[in-house]
Fold each of these.
Amino acid sequence: MLFDLYGKELSLTLEGRLSVQDGYLRLSPTRLMLGSLPIPQVTVDRAVSSLFESPENRERFRLPPDIRSLRVENGELVVTWR
């Protein structure tokens, strides 16, 4: 993601593994970079956990009941249906 911060473009890069847990999309973060600055893993874990666990956001990550799993293979999203 690119955004403008005080007139400068700054990138935010989040890497992780997608999964489905109890019908909800989950992300297990492996790395977060703000520009070229790595963010400590404990901070990343806390931020992503609060994003996915907050009551306001929880329903946004609910998947249709027909989706069993998601994964990325060779740069492509693979969806497994029931």
Note: The helical segments are 41-53, 55-58.
Amino acid sequence: MGVVPTEKALQIARERNLDLVEVASTAVPPVCRLLDYGKYRYEQTKKERKARVTQKGGALKEIRVRPRVQDHDLETKIKTAKKFLADGDKVRFFVIFRGREITHPELGLKALQKVANDLKEMAGLDGTPSLEGRIMSVVFSPTSTKKIAKEQTAEVKMPEVKVKEEV
């Protein structure tokens, strides 16, 4: 419709039983649309719900090893952890001590250090290895995470607006 004074744009919106919605407030003059705002909000919430359903949350996967684990077995566990991290999940490695193994916690720490060295390009450590009872554990989180930007709206009143018609 072109550049129209605000009062005339509001009048046109009332005549057509539509709402005057500001689309681009930073443009000079600001761009507005004539549309049914209730229908627009309904469609937006519908899209958000659909996005939420398809969105995958980062679960916490657990992998257990023993302090005297063989290198090949540990490499297999690390390969599994890499798959989990590639899917965006966090991974917790447990070293479970049985019997007298608890007298040598350095063996468990050595296994966790090997895991940390093999996963350093894919994951970061969430804290340091902790020993709770007979279980030593450490959590790895994937380094490449997507950040979701939130939209913010601001109201600015200008004397003239550029109007696009949309029904």
Note: The chain has two domains: 2-54+153-165, 60-142.
Amino acid sequence: MAEDSDVVDSENSFIRSPAAIMAAISGGTLSVSAILNPSKVTGLSLCPIFHMTGVECPFCGMTRSFVSITHARFSEALDYNIGSPLIYVAFVWMLFVSVRDLKLGQHKEIPSTPKWLYKSWLMVTITVFAWLFWSRWLSNLI
């Protein structure tokens, strides 16, 4: 009987591990972007800030851009949101490292990324989204 509870505890710790959660979130996001039809989401706007203010936030167009990237419509994706390829690559990376860690049995820790890669990605991403914040939001207030 004790063996059965050990197996259940082991399965629960695996399913609730950081690597499994990251794999589910990133894999789910990428799967949904593959399922959606790019021509059907062109008019889609889920942003509450845009609906309240009429001004696009730095993240407006991210859903449409993800769908476009998944369907290899790269110029269309950049038109929706120029920063979304950076976030898309992060989701692909998170899926890769979390699945890798799950396969290796290293699922109890948050999957790691080399510091130089993380810092480089972060600097570029902050710069791009700061520019989007300025061009979409602050420039409209002046």
Note: The chain has one domain: 2-141.
